[in-house]
Each structure stands twice: as C-alpha cells, then as structure tokens.
Amino acid sequence: MLQFETITPDNAHILKDYYAACQHRLCEYSVGVKLMWRDYLHAQFAQGAGCLIVKSCTKGRCQFDYPVPGPEGDVDKALTLIEEWCTENGCRLSFNPVPEDKAAVLLRRYPMMTVSNERTWKDYLYHSEDLASFAGRRYSGQRNHINKFRKAHPDARFVELTAQDAPLVEQFWRDYQEQFHKQDNGMAVNELNHAREMFRLLDRGWFCAGGLLWEERLVALSLGEFCGQTLQVHIEKALYSHAGAYPTMVQAFAQHFGTRVQWMNREDDACDKGLRTSKLQYLPAELAGKMRLDIGLEIDRLTCIPTLKTERLTLDALQEKDKAAYNALCLDDERNRWWGYDYRTDLQGELTEDYFLNVAREDFAARRAVNFAIRLQGQCIGEAVLYRFDWRGGAELGARIAPEFAGNGYGTEAFAAVAEWALYQLMLTRVVAKCYKENRASYAMLSSCMRRTGEDETFHYFEKLV
User: Fold this and answer.
1) pTM here?
2) What CATH number labels 298-465?
3) What span, in angstroms and rounded, lies between the C-alpha atoms of 235 and 221?
4) I want to staple 27 with a disulfide (CB 3.0 to 4.6 A). Which of 61, 248, 257, 267 is the partner?
C-alpha cells in the first residue's frame, strides 16, 4: 500500500530527481508549483513501482498526477498501486492534470470516465528561441517596448541571481510592494508571498533565477526550473514604474537560460483577463491542455439494488425485517473466519442493533458495494456481496450462508446468479473471488462456477470473464 507524505522544502529534492527528466511540459510537474501552491494543492507524494506518485486534495477532492517514472519506472504498475489505494481508502479515482499525450493511456485502461479540458488552466508554451529573439513583424510590439526600456536605462544589465543575492532580491520585493495594485485580490497576494518564499530556496539548487539590475537595484526578476526539455517559468515580476522592463526581462531570461531547452512554459492564466491578454501577446506556440479524468465504476449505474431470482432463491436488498438474521450472520465468528472479516477491527462507534444493516446501506449509498440478501421462501439465509470494484471493469464477489442452511447448494446457486448478473447486466468484464486454502467447501463452490487462476500461501484465486 502506498504511503504518502506531505511535500515540503525538506523532502522536495526527492521530487526533483523525477521532475528533472520529466517531459510532460505542464507546470504542475515541477517542484516549484508543488511548493508555491502547497496551501491550495495540499500535495503529498509516494514512491512506488519506480515512479513518483503525487496526490493532491483541492476543495475536498482527491486527485492524482499522472505517474512520473524514474529510470526503472513502470507506469502501469504505478497506476495499479493508485487504484488499490483508492479502493482501500474509499476514495474516488481521479487524475488531474493529465498531459494530453498521456490521456490515451488512461482512456484505454478505464471503461468508464468523464473528461474535461478547461481553457482556464491551459499552460502557455513558447519556443525558447522565439522569446530569446523576438524576431519578425509579429514581435514588433515587444521590440519597441524593449527599445524604450534600453533608451531609458542604458546601463541596465541582466544578472544571474543566487542565494548570495538575497539582500538584492529582498530590496526588489520592498520596491515591488510599494507599487503593488492588487491588494484586494487574495490570490494575487498569496502568489506574491509565495514568490518571495521561492527565492529564499535558491540555495537548494532546484531553480535558476535572474534579474535586470539598474543603478544597483533590481527592476525585474524571474525564476524558473528545468524539467526535461521545458523551462518552467514560475515567477516573472517587474516594477510598474519602469516601462518595458517586463518584455526586456522575458527576453533576457530566455537568452540566458532558454538555450538549454526547446520549450518555455509561462504557466496558465487562472482566468485573469490581464494575464491572458499579456501571455497571448507573446504569441505562444501551443496552449498545453490539462485534462481531468474522473474514473467511474459500473456500480454507479445502479439507482437501487435489483432483485435476482434463481430456481430456489430470491436475492434483493437487505430490509428491516432481516435485521436479526443478518446480525446473527455478521456476529458468527466461525463463519467470519472463512469470510476473512472481523467486525471488531472496523467497528465505528457502538455496536447497535442497526449497525450491520446501516453499514451495508452506507456502502451502497457510497457505491462501494452491493449487498444482496439471499432469501429462501422470503427468509434471509445469507448474503452475497459484490465489492472491491477495481476501476477497470472488475469486482470481487463473496457469499456466505447461515450455518443451519449450509450444505444444500444455496451458496453456489446465489453466487452463480450474482456473477451472471454482474457480467451481463451490470456490464463488468471480470468477477474474481478467493477462498482460504483450508476452506474445502468454498473451494468446491468456486471451482464449480469459476476458473481457478492461482494461489499463494493463504488463498486460492478464481475469476469469471464475460
């Protein structure tokens, strides 16, 4: 099981080892964005299958980045680890942001999903040589602004900034704060505060930075991060009082650092009209989409638990009248041993008369499981549970019969009926089951209606396919 830890400046070097070679181009696949926006993203990371696995939680919604492989990484196995974590933690599976060129992998993997690709969050990607040269008529506006800046500041020069330049950078922030006109914009204020924090991390070696120095003071600065063939430009600031400083900074930064990469990503505009206008004026070569894929489950199709009928049995939703019989079944320690479940382990609160019935109903309401009451002439004699939906068209099935009704084939009959319904009505592609090696009765039942797929030290495993 994946073990996540919160991303902080103290462990971000682990992420950098993966992002340094990452070719996804999106700004979220960088240390800078994870740290700058950690109060919003609440991002955590784990390592598994040789990949970096990042989980964020925004507005109460859990979402995963597409796994970033290391040299020996296996993305397929990493996706399986994410699926298993979501299943175990009762969390819906969602990927965001997904690079457009990786979306096809997930589209093939998952049979049910909804997809969105909002304009608001698309990144602005530029060819690094375009920003470095501003060549051609299309960039005449930028060149005019730069010429005006150079005329007014003939001695201004670009300097690379390091941790030793902290006093110079801090003076810039004081100057910038005096001219800052977005004091009533909470997001802009937060972004400014985080930008200052990022420059204090220059000693970590994760970022590159530079500024325009004029009369021993900075009038503009920028900070970026190399990720594969993309320079992620996290921060671009210029004093409003120095006309033309902004495009001059953009060009100088590209000339100094952009020669190492093909792309420069100046990130999204967050639906800010001014930012959008500015970023478009620099003529991006591409708007890189950030796709969100919310993975669905076949159980989501159900509005209620259906009624199934066999030659001798009826299977339907548990009811109030089943409470005594169902409690006896759930409290039977001998049966639970073979069921692989001890209610004491998961008990939430007080064990009341309604506890087990409520848990079954809550599981269906959250679309985690379908609990069928197995009825003989209207009496509840057991249950069949379809659960652990695996996001890829599969689910696990289990059945148990009260001891006084065992030995009559009721379990096999009910199990086969639910498996048939799951495959041909619920539209699963695979139903799996397992039994303890010592449980000969369950082994015989499963062998009669499923194909054995393997074993380990504890279980025999079975499956039934469409």
Assistant:
1) 0.91
2) 3.40.630.30
3) 8
4) 267
